[in-house]
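Possible regression after last week's pipeline update?

I re-ran a chain I had predicted before the update to compare outputs. Posting the input and the new output here so someone can diff against the archived version. Not blocking, just want to make sure nothing changed silently.
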Amino acid sequence: MAGKLVVHRKGYVRRPHLRHAYRRKDGTLVKATHVKETRVPPTTFEIKDVGAKGRGKKLFEVHKGKMTKVALEAGLLEAGQHIGELSLTKLKKLADLLVKKYGAKSAKGMFQAQELFRKRMKDGFRTKMAKIREYIGDKYSKQLVPEKAIQKWKSMSPAARAKVMPERKGRAGYKLIRGRWRKV
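New output (post-update):
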């Protein structure tokens, strides 16, 4: 996937056409004009090889077999069996075990990753993973909410919050000028 690719682009003739009138962002009106036929010459250039579409840089690290290993240790799976073959009740038991071992956030993330990687599968595996992810979210909601951070935020004065909070568009120091937020 690293390296360069050579692209040979064919030349062509762009047809004559009428360019419609339009208004620029600064308000000036550009009149309609007739564009003549133009010849675009053939070119050869190099581009960076990025591989097949959708096969780019990985966004997060995947630890293969983590869920399967826990399921095998607990006796929920037999050797050679797949997590997709488990019933919802067994998957809920697996989810509880994963929460005990890795924590609620990690366990929920594991099921979310399974759901994401199989979003185009038609065998119902994705929906099972979504149900279990929702189950973890409902059952372990207390562990998923950062209560210490919320408590600290509530105890702060508005002035202290303003210091900690990063400036955003639409807040103090920004103004809407000609449809864009600009720092003033």
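Follow-up from reviewer: compared with the archived run. The CA atoms of residues 112 and 145 lie 17 Å apart. Marking as no regression found.
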